[in-house]
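User: I'm preparing a small set of examples for a lab meeting where we compare how different chains pack in three dimensions. I only have the primary sequence for this one, and I'd like the structure in token form so I can line it up with the others. Please keep the answer compact; I'll paste it straight into my notes.
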Amino acid sequence: MQYFATVEPQKRAAPHLHTAIRGSVPHEVIRQVTAATYHQVWWPAHDQLVYDGDAVPVWDMRTRGFVDPDTRQPLSTWDDAVEDVDEPAHVVTFGRQVHSKGILGGSEEAGRHIGYLTKYLTKSTGEVVEANSNRQRDHHDRLHAELAITPCSPRCAVWLLYGVQPQGANSKMTPGHCKGRAHRRATLGLPGRRVLVSRKWSGKSLADHKADRKTFVRDMLAGVGIEKPERDTSRLIWRKVESGDPHVPPRAHLLMHAISERIAWKAEYDRALLAAAGPPGGPETSAIEQAAA
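Assistant: Understood. Below is the structure token output for the 293-residue chain.
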């Protein structure tokens, strides 16, 4: 199935999913699938803090793990804690509001809905969820406070507050302090990918799209006499650079070379765009149409 979806936070900060599906799917099937879809998270219990304040687990060099600050007993490892789980900590389902609508491709309505979906490509959660009243601000503060003590992943340092050593526990961890975006005030628990695209949406792979972009730019430049032949890399051998290799230029030189190269590329592309647009006051033309021609 081909789809393009975006997650829109509502005013109460609950996620709302909008999905464009290419094809013909009965509305009843969509309702049945959403009603039967769920996701279980089998994590240890984390509804009651075991440690709070200054009395938090400490790292023990002898056992290479976190221990209780008073008894010096090692905390449960992640694998042992998960082994004792009898029921999922979270069960995620779709809400009751499921609305599906058929739209014809190429219509004005289709363009309007596509614009609604794609506007979230450049918007962060903080730009969409704005508290316009004291009640909303208090709600966001309560949600943020709860997220601060809610583990975001098996590797989250917040697990230490519940007496569980997270996966990959090490001495650099600070109990209760995780740098994950899920805990931030700006994301309100929606830190992941907000736009989901089916790899089958266009029938092309990422490599195909990259090749198309290169061909488009190369054709644009060729239209103004700038030739960019494909480099022959068949005789090159690629290998990782070892630390201290005397043949490697300084990092500052590499950065300046990359910046200079990209400035030159942009200047060439701008020149091609100006040439495709024609003289000022003339008939409007499309750079895409000229490149395609």
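A couple of notes for your slides: The two ends are 33 Å apart (CA to CA). The chain has eight helices and seven strands.

User: Perfect, thanks.
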